[in-house]
Amino acid sequence: MSSSTPTAFTIGHAGELTAAYHAELDRLPLAANTRRAYRTRVANSLAWLVSADLDGGDPLADPHARDYAVRDYTRYLRVVGKKEPATINAVLAALDHFYRWRGLGPPNARRQDLPQLAPRALEPAEQRRLLRAVERSPSARDRALALTLFYAGPRISEAAALDADDVRLTARKGELAIRDGKGGTARKVPLHAEARAALAAWLPEAPGSWSSSPGAPPPAAGPCHSTRTTSTRCGPAAAAGG
Question: For every residue of 65-101, which 3-state class applies, written as one string?
Fold first, then answer.
């Protein structure tokens, strides 16, 4: 360790801190998994502190030294440990809790950027369950919105912005006009026969704005969204990412 690293911080010191922190975790009303994760992550951090070549004072007593140490540990996890961003962020959450317990407050360490995952289409079995739930719904509005989301694949924000005038229906065809899509672009989407039938049944009684039906939740609260909360889209159209 460098001369600026407190010599009092030894393996024995780390062991004492770990035991005291464990006792604090046992006292708190935390879920067992959370308690176990905090113990492991903080213990690993303290073990790293024992052998790390640190600068700037005592990381367990000085806020600046705390920040430097946590940033160095974050870099170690990323570069040497090859840890994923979500794992590093979970470690930082545990260290926030530990340093609050120490009375120093959470470290000033930037969270890792998480990769954005593409929307995932519903599996065939999920699609069947959704369509059966829609069929049983007593609400013409919910059936129309869910089937439009499912078959046409607009984003939730796009569906919420639709007006009745954005739907064009004929005896054999139907079209949905998205006026403010991704990147501010407009597009027209053909409507499946099932969606056309549901819209034809509901539109005569619909208000001008789709999301303004009295007492009704916005489209995002409908059955399509609740079936797959990890995506803002559903159905076959989501599989193409369109």
Answer: HHHHHHHHHHHHHHHCCCCCHHHHHHHHHHHHHHHHH
Closest CA to 46 of 15, 82, 72, 67: 15
Owning domain of residue 25: 11-101
pLDDT at 240 over 90: no
Place of tokens 């995952």: 117
Q: List the one residue out of 240, 141, 135, 227 whose CA is nearest residue 189.
A: 240
In a domain, 149, yes or no: yes
Both structure tokens of 71: 């940033």
Burial class of residue 60 (count of CB atoms within 10 Å of its CB; 0-12, 13-18, 19+): buried
**Helix axes of 85-101 and 32-51: crossing angle, nearest 10 degrees:** 90
Name the pTM for this structure.
Answer: 0.49
